[in-house]
Design brief:
Distance between the termini: 36 Å
Oligomer: single chain
Number of strands: 0
Length: about 140
Amino acid sequence: MVAWKIFALGSALFAGMTAVLAKIGVKNISSNLATFIRTVVILLFLCILLAIRREWQNPFLINKRSLLFLSLSAITTGLSWLCYYRALQDGPASLVAPIDKLSVVFAVVLAILFLAERPGAHEWIGISLIVGGTLFIIFK
């Protein structure tokens, strides 16, 4: 299997675990505080990882365009997390997580619009199944 596919499956596995762990963790605190705690833990984890792998670089020496788009990505990630934790606080993880995965559909549409990517027939069938499954869950 190609390395990127293994990492993509790992991402899906850890995201699935995130839903269950976050649902338990957000039970008795505000969703915003929960998001803050998650962010601090991720920051510490990444600091350790960068140090161990000796990958640290001064972020201000990175290409300005890369820095801009990574910053915009961070803001949208933060907004996503805030919404996700709030949804988990009020709704069941078994419904919040699948609806959250509509992000796959949004990512494909945005990749078509801004990156000129062109999904093939198999990808469109998969995307349609994701949309159909999510609508099935929402309107059960």
